[in-house]
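user: Here is a favour to ask of a fellow structure person. I have my own habits and do not want them to colour yours. Could you put it straight underneath, so I can go through it closely?

assistant:
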Amino acid sequence: QVQLVESGGGLVQAGGSLRLSCTASGRTFSTYGMGWFRQAPGKEREAVAAISWSGGSTYYADSVKGRFTISRDNAKNTVYLKMNSLKPEDTAVYYCAADPRGYGLRFSYEYWGQGTQVTVSS
């Protein structure tokens, strides 16, 4: 099993930036595909980005492509989501997810963090 803890959320003005972190427990982090998701009030959860075990392959939702960057540091058991040019519609609770079986925007991940709130003011 793996436990995931997100951090880095907060309140930011439109056009600003934030970097979210998700730190995993355990020694096998490098064998897990990782993803970031978000859920806004009254909306379904949506995939934001995904990254392969080595970090060599990434996927992004069209809504964040060119603005968000997913990366990982396997030595630190951490995956990041750098968010630039934030918009009010990016406001949501952001969750990271992990799974040793794979990764992707439509992948059903086994392990989830508790989420971190991101609020973008206009």
Observations:
- The CA atoms of residues 24 and 122 lie 33 Å apart.
- The chain has a mean pLDDT of 96.
